[in-house]
Amino acid sequence: MEDILLEVINLKKYYPITGGVFKRKVADVRAVDGISIGIRKGECFGLVGESGCGKTTFGKTVIRLLDPTEGCILFDVPRDIREEIKKHINSPNPDSYKLKKLREQYDIATFKGKKLRSLRRRMQIVYQDPTTSLNPRMLVKDIVGEPLKVQGLAKGREIREKVLEVLQKVGLTDKHLYRYPHEFSGGQRQRIAIARAIITNPEFVVLDEPTSSVDVSVRAELLKEFLRLKKELDLTYLFISHDLSVVECISDRVAVMYLGKIVEVAETRELFNNPLHPYTTALFSAIPIPDPLAKKKKRILLRGEVPSPVNPPQGCRFHPRCPYATDICRKLEPELVEVKKDHLVACHRV
Amino acid sequence: MVDKAKIVEVDDLKVRFYTYEGIVKALEGVDVFLRKGETLGVAGETGCGKTVTGLSILKLVPPPGRIEGGRVLLNKDGKTINLLEKDELFLTKIRGKDISMVFQEPKAALNPVYTVEQQIGEVLMLHRKAEFILNILRQIKDEYKKTKSKFRRFILKRQFGLYKLMLKNPESLYLKIMSKIPIVRRFKRRLKEEIRKEVVRLLKEMEIPDPERVANMYPHELSGGMAQRVVIAIALACNPTVLIADEPTTSLDVTVQAQVLDLIRRLKEKFGSSIIYVSHDLGVIAELCDRVAIMYAGNVVELADVYELFKNPLHPYTRGLLEAIPRPDKPLKSIKGTVPNLINPPQGCRFHPRCPYATDICRKFKPELVEVKKDHLVACHQVMGGE
Question: I need a surface site. Which of A169, A181, B79, B176 has the fewest CB within 10 A?
Answer without folding.
Answer: B79
